[in-house]
Amino acid sequence: MCDSCGCHTHGHAEKRVVEVHQSLLAANQEQAEKNRHHIEAMGAVAINMISSPGSGKTTLLEHTLERIGSRWKVGVIEGDIETERDADRIRKKGVPVVQITTGGACHLDAPLVHKGLHGLQDQSEDGRFDLIFIENVGNLVCPATFDLGEHERIILVSVPEGSDKPAKYPTTFTGANTFLITKTDLLPHFDFSLAEARQEALRIHPELEILEIAAPTGQGMDEWLAHLDGLLARRQG
Amino acid sequence: MCDSCGCHTHGHAEKRVVEVHQSLLAANQEQAEKNRHHIEAMGAVAINMISSPGSGKTTLLEHTLERIGSRWKVGVIEGDIETERDADRIRKKGVPVVQITTGGACHLDAPLVHKGLHGLQDQSEDGRFDLIFIENVGNLVCPATFDLGEHERIILVSVPEGSDKPAKYPTTFTGANTFLITKTDLLPHFDFSLAEARQEALRIHPELEILEIAAPTGQGMDEWLAHLDGLLARRQG
């Protein structure tokens, strides 16, 4: 055995981190339930979008907003560690946007989203919305633990990332409702197996709905819009 | 103001998390320094590879190991949340590998790597190595805070992820020595600006060395091997 092992100190600190983390998660969960009521009182349903950086969340949003047009009243909460870049891209589509920069934290949490909801309402005359997209910080791991008060949680994995991602990040998929495989126009250029991605995701979460999308080419966008339609009908019906 | 705000509770728990996190980081840093001595006593230099999932860390390692052949004695520590998949891929290249699964944690830490070092030594007759690659958990944020005892920290961003990543994840770049832009063979298919990626990365960290690589096509691999050569010469010279 090596006598330079710091595991003991580490184990003690880790136990305390786990305890404090659990109390933080409990506080987050409490606020998340309040957010859900808050969102419903605004007349809306909310979608929490989770993926690695660069999986195409903002691009999908841009194309989705173009297709929605004035059909629904949409608001967007953008989560990023730094910069207003994503909010600037969405703002060009003419919808209310709130940029939340976490200043280092690798995920949004329910109190931050609560501020975001008020920020959206400040940009609306009647404070009411049909659909709120919450684009989480680009990270396939950390955001999965934090309920934001959403009604639907969507995980995106793009073709260039590889079809082994569901198997390697199972807990992220456990809490999701829908799995979007994005950038499917790139399938000819990558060793990505749609069968493997689907199979592993369904093994982890048999109820998961899976869609294949290439937003810039329009592939799968009709199914995605129909999915949103169904979500709004179920929640508001 | 909204009376359903849970910020107070949250603020208190957050303060405690910060305190405990700081003590955990201090314990990690202590172990990291021990790891660095441990690695040097093994005759080796260590490289900590950080990127999002699917940026090409394992693929780069596979091609790098093929090129190194028997020139240097290499060991690999593979960090993943779950599965032995990456270790299985590397094992086929005939080098000692230790797979560490973090069981949910989004990064390796120094105590885990310390176990990995012993695992590598158990697979070697004399316990000595020239070069140790530590492939961190796929995550562009969390691993940046944890020194593992490495001598060089490398950040990978692949072309499909987008050239805005340095600007959006600055703290990850602050602590790195080298920035690898990977999958450059895909530049014709993506709206990725090498100039933007370079400029933003150098704005954050002016001393950063930047290499462009497409491991499967061999593009940039000579420069990458020369870079490793220089690293070993400086450390062992």
Tell me how many strands of chain A there are: 7
> Structural class of the helices, strands and pairings of chain A?
alpha/beta
CATH architecture of chain A: 3-Layer(aba) Sandwich
Proportion in helices of chain A = 40-55%
CATH topology description of chain A: Rossmann fold
Main sheet: strands, sense, barrel of chain A: 7 strands, parallel
Principal-axes shape call of chain A:
globular
What do these coordinates show?
2 copies of one chain form a homodimer. Chain A has a single domain (14-236), classed as P-loop containing nucleotide triphosphate hydrolases (Rossmann fold), CATH 3.40.50. In chain A, 43% of the residues lie in helices and 17% in strands. Chain A has 8 helices and 7 strands; from the N terminus they run H-E-H-E-H-E-H-E-E-H-H-E-H-E-H. Chain A has helices at 7-41, 57-68, 85-91, 110-122, 165-168, 170-174, 194-204, 221-236; strands at residues 45-51, 74-80, 97-101, 131-135, 152-158, 178-182, 209-213. Chain A has a 7-stranded parallel sheet with strand order 3-2-4-1-5-6-7, with helices on both faces. The longest helix of chain A has 35 residues, at 7-41. The N and C termini of chain A lie far apart (64 Å). At the A-B interface, helix 1, helix 4 and helix 5 of A face helix 1, helix 4 and helix 5 of B.
